[in-house]
């Protein structure tokens, strides 16, 4: 049975906003946005989606790009709880899918401890949208049997703590979230763990937005490929044979030229 689209007073919905393009929002998400009294949204929620928030609803931004100056998670938990306990219909709008590196569980547990009901509306995650934009598949019969979503976001001053041997398996596609600043380390560690230096890579920036960029190259050139990307631009790294997309036109001509020369 499908869940109801109306929001009961005092209920919280975690809603996936997708990668940015309002056309990639689900119909359910759109109805929930229209039914909310108050909406808390992340920095990665696209401007076209923010524009859908009804004039009468309160809108509260709770995040900045790259985690800089963002509100601590505990503070977001408290804001959600206070709004729910005040009897508001609450929507927590998250970029992509709430279940992928979205810290949903912390919010759900905090609300549940106070007896507040939380429901989830899924969204299109950045990896799916990036593959679609690049006309690529995340899996490939016979060549890419595994798909791993991994975050390369390390705490300040700490090295990445990942299972590089597992990630280096040749039949895996890696979708690396928050991996731009660690691109050089990812490349070096994967190659050291046995992944071929020529493994195809697609760097997807601002996917689904008007300023989208898709930069293609190979694993050994990964650090170079991300050099022109600013801190503010959400960036996903796709690594593996499945993302080669040889028939796809390169959109970032300048970088593509240099990358293909490497
Ligand atoms: C905190 S994670 C949230 C992921 C989100 N829940 C999802 O399912 O896509 C943020 C990271 O997702 C990726 N991301 C989100 N939206 C993106 C977009 N439009 N283009 C490229 N990468 C994106 C980037 O790696 C960004 O640093």
From TrEMBL:
Pfam families: TP_methylase. Keywords: Methyltransferase, Porphyrin biosynthesis, S-adenosyl-L-methionine, Transferase. Pathway: Porphyrin-containing compound metabolism; siroheme biosynthesis; precorrin-2 from uroporphyrinogen III: step 1/1. Residues 12-222 form the Tetrapyrrole methylase domain. GO terms for molecular function: uroporphyrin-III C-methyltransferase activity. One of its GO terms (biological process) is siroheme biosynthetic process. Its EC number is 2.1.1.107. Gene3D superfamilies: Cobalt-precorrin-4 Transmethylase, Domain 1, Methyltransferase, Cobalt-precorrin-4 Transmethylase, Domain 2. The keyword Nucleotidyltransferase does not apply. The keyword Transferase applies. Belongs to the precorrin methyltransferase family. This is uroporphyrinogen-III C-methyltransferase. It comes from Edaphosphingomonas laterariae.
